Amino acid sequence: MPPPLRILTADRGDAGLRLDLVLRRHLTDVDAATRTRVQAWIENGHVTVNGTPVRRVSARAARGDVVAVALPDAVPRRVMAAEDVGLDILYEDDHLLALNKPAGLVVHPSYRNRAGTLMNALLWHARAWPEGRRPSLVGRLDKWTSGIVIVAKTAAVHTALQRAFAASDPAFATGFGAAGSEKDYLAVVYGRVNVARGEIDLRIGHEASDRRRMVASVKVGAPSLTRFERLARVAAPRAGLSLLRCRLATGRRHQIRVHLAARGWPLVGDSTYGEPRWSQMTDPALAAALRAFPRQALHAWRVALAHPVTRARLTLEAPVPKDIERLLTVSGLDSRLLSRRSAGLQACRS
């Protein structure tokens, strides 16, 4: 019997990445897809790109490439169990749903988190869905990032949603007032952001000494673009604090966290890419609040798109979580800006 064949289409998150990294990104459900084995599969001729065998691990993928890989020694992952874990559903119809993920919840089972994930909870939620419907995530959030996650109920809707977000790039280039598919994040960062809005255009790749970390570079890595708008800022003597609205034009791993840190505006609470600037604060109460903040201050706040079936405009918003809300209050960042702008922000004027 020939080995099982997996076929995938490179998306915008794969563009410019090495072939082995693309495969590892898409084969998270295959325990055997370690870095060494994936590279061996490529070198031994088990991988084709657009029908042509590719034996170079360093070959770069382009968006739209059809990649096929024979899995000679792959061991399928255990079947995920449905678990009765409460979900904060923001919207649901026959085709999709949107939920508000709390910080600390892992999105998908992995080697270290085989149970208690968002997918386990979704399988429980979907246990009475009609035949042919199964939850499928459209994008993911880091464990310690809160906010909106979109879930498709069929393969066709999943594909349509992926295309909708991929097609949003040209419209996004015109600014925050653009129509099309949009996904906005709220970020509380250290630093005095002295521009009303702008963009961060830096490549992102894996750190050579620790592949769990990403690094920003002018020359190395995949092209990556983040746009930002300053919603509020306070002096916070000796360090500064700002509230930003960020929108992704590309979807790299840890992109907002890495890009903001590269500009000198690390996220509050980000122990991976930030630094403990709370120690510089002259206000003891503010310093204590910043020191105690338990995670990166990043929230997937708002999504707007055309419904993939009805074509009606769908705008969804995840309430600001209590921990970030308290941080805004203690720091003096004006949280009232959020309610005033939630229906759709216009370009910030300096």
Structure characterization notes:
- With 350 residues, the protein is of the alpha+beta class.
- It folds into three domains: 5-70, Structural Genomics Hypothetical 15.5 Kd Protein In mrcA-pckA Intergenic Region, Chain A, CATH 3.10.290.10; 89-166, Pseudouridine synthase, CATH 3.30.2350; 179-341, 2-Layer Sandwich (Pseudouridine synthase), CATH 3.30.2350.10.
- Helices cover 21% and strands 27% of the residues.
- It has helices spanning 19-26, 35-43, 118-125, 155-166, 168-172, 255-262, 284-292, 322-331, 336-341; strands at residues 5-9, 47-49, 52-53, 66-70, 89-92, 96-101, 136-138, 146-152, 182-190, 197-201, 203-207, 210-217, 225-234, 241-248, 298-306, 313-317.
- The strands form three sheets. Strands 5, 6, 7, 8, 9, 10, 13, 14, 15 and 16 form a ten-stranded mixed sheet that branches. The protein has a four-stranded antiparallel sheet with strand order 1-4-2-3.
- Strand 15 and strand 16 form a beta hairpin.
- Helix 1 crosses helix 2.
- The longest helix has 12 residues, at 155-166.
- The chain is globular and about 65 Å long.
- The N and C termini lie far apart (66 Å).
- Residues 169-175 and 342-350 have low confidence and may be disordered.
Largest sheet entry: 10 strands, mixed
Shape: globular
CATH topology assignment of the largest domain:
Pseudouridine synthase
CATH architecture of the largest domain: 2-Layer Sandwich
- Helix residue percentage: 10-25%
Order of helices and strands: EHHEEEEEHEEHHEEEEEEHHEEHH
Write out the CATH superfamily name of the largest domain: Pseudouridine synthase
Radius of gyration: 21 Å
> What is the end-to-end distance?
66 Å
Query: Class by helix and strand content?
Result: alpha+beta
Question: What number of structural domains do the residues give?
Answer: 3
Strand content is 25-35%
Number of strands: 16
- The CATH class of the largest domain: Alpha Beta
Oligomer: single chain
Low-confidence stretches are: 169-175, 342-350
Mean pLDDT: 86
Number of helices: 9
